Amino acid sequence: MAKTEKKKIGLTTRIFISLLLGAILGVFLHYCVLPNDAVQNILVDGVFYVVGQGFLRLMQMLVVPLVLCSLICGASAIGDTKTLGKVGVRTVVFYIITTALAVAVALTVARIINPGVGMDLNTLEVAETQIATTQTSMVDTLLDIIPKNPIESLATGNMLQIIVFAIIVGIILAKLGDKTQIVHNLFQQGNDIMMEMTMMVMSLAPIGVFCLIARTFSGMGFDAFQPLIKYMFAVMLALVIQCLGVYQILLKVFTGLNPIRFIKKFLPVMGFAFSTATSNATIPLSIDTLERKMGVSRRISSFTIPLGATINMDGTSIMQGVAVVFIAQAYGIALTPMDYLTVIATATLASIGTAGVPSVGLVTLSMVLTSVGLPIEGIGFIMGIDRILDMSRTAVNITGDAVCTTIVANQNQALDKEVFNKKEAELEA
Fold first, then answer.
1. Which sign, positive or negative, has the C-alpha torsion 329, 334, 338, 342?
2. Which UniProt key words apply to this protein (predicted)?
3. DSSP codes joined into one string, 64-89
4. Residue numbers of the domain that contains 91
């Protein structure tokens, strides 16, 4: 009699179990154990912090070399600069349009819910607001895309500059052909090494996610949420509409693919983005998932995903749109239709060149508030509960990147729909 083989729990399932258990443990520690110096110092600020941040650093370690190698390989594989230009223009236009739509959705939801109406500012806990108010002109933002020193860009992790440099190198490799075959092979092998390293690091994801989530929730009490419950609800509702509504309609219209299947396959990446709250750390997992589960060619995803992690901040823009309405209503300041248009334009432009790191949205929010004459001090009211919203909007950001990548791949005949339509069990068999 043949032995029945035990079904192994997949990495996806383990990550979600870790996410749930971490949240439960964090809430339990907050209400039943803390404040307790030993638990706080040894477990929360010790084990959870070290393991969680250690895992996050391992993911961040992968980003720059993976993006450099995969982008160079992708650009050289596309070869034709005309095709590459089309991919680039379509991607940037898509990101800008979805960001503008995201702000419009946020403002509409906020105007319906009115999160700041009747708000007693005395009930709010005010965090100290230290936000840089220096603004960069559009000209400087465009010039900053071109690296003065590519080595410095790689060292500092300036993603836009790395993308530009890698694309130029890739195009030259394609142009020179056999003359530079050794260099091409070097980057190809480097890409293979980085993907293998990604798989090794991802095997630690359940432990890392558990520690990150447990520490986050151990410091969060529901008491801090109560005065801001309408604000949080408005942000979360707008995020859901953008992620499950706007994106999936665009996916269906431009590719004909099943949005439910897309969400099911991409859900682990969304969960990972939620736990890390950083788009950049999610780049390796997004590229791998799109190739293995969705059938998206790496030559497309290696270009669009890093670019999206840098300039596509729809979730962040949603928070900014709701925050503007909330702060204006809390202070009793009336906004005109022109102010709303200004918010859409400023929030869209502010997302370009913004780093994909935790809580960066609060920095760019100061630009948006200044553009319509609202007090920057209002940011202090929402800083205390921003972490949980930051995690949620990061999940939306990377979903937008993936939808754009799938659409662009489909338009460039770089999408294998047979792979997309296969169930996950068939892909892992």
1. negative
2. Cell membrane, Membrane, Symport, Transmembrane, Transmembrane helix, Transport
3. HHHHHHHHHHHHHHH--HHHHHHHHH
4. 36-426
Partners of 415 in beta bridges: 296
CATH assignment at residue 331: 1.10.3860.10
Instruction: Classify residue 164 as exposed, middle or buried by CB count within 10 Å of its CB (0-12, 13-18, 19+).
Output: middle
User: What are the helix and strand counts (H, E) for the chain?
Assistant: 21, 0
Instruction: Identify whether the C-beta of residue 103 lies closer than 8 Å to the C-beta of residue 318.
Output: yes
**349 φ/ψ angles, rounded to the nearest 5 degrees:** -70, -35
Decide if 246 is inside a domain: yes
pLDDT of residue 398 exceeding 80, the answer is yes
Give me the number of domains the chain comprises.
1
- What contacts 284, CB < 8 A, 6 or more positions away? 59, 62, 63, 66, 194, 195, 198, 201, 202
List of residues 6+ apart from 287 with CB closer than 8 A: 66, 70, 298, 301, 302, 305
Partnered with residue 296 across adjacent β-strands are 415
Positive or negative: CA dihedral 389, 291, 428, 244 = positive
Token representation of residue 257? 């693919």
The 10s digit of each residue's pLDDT in 89-122 is 888 889 889 988 998 999 999 999 988 877 666 5
CA distance 45 to 133: 31
C-alpha 146/C-alpha 363 separation (Å) is 23
Does some domain include residue 7? no
* pLDDT tens, residue by residue, 214-226: 887 887 666 656 6
Query: Is residue 410 assigned to a domain?
Result: yes
Mind giving me the DSSP string for 83-136? HHHHHHHHHHHHHHHHHHHHHHHHHHHHHHH-TTTT--GGGSPPPP--------
CA distance 283 to 279: 7
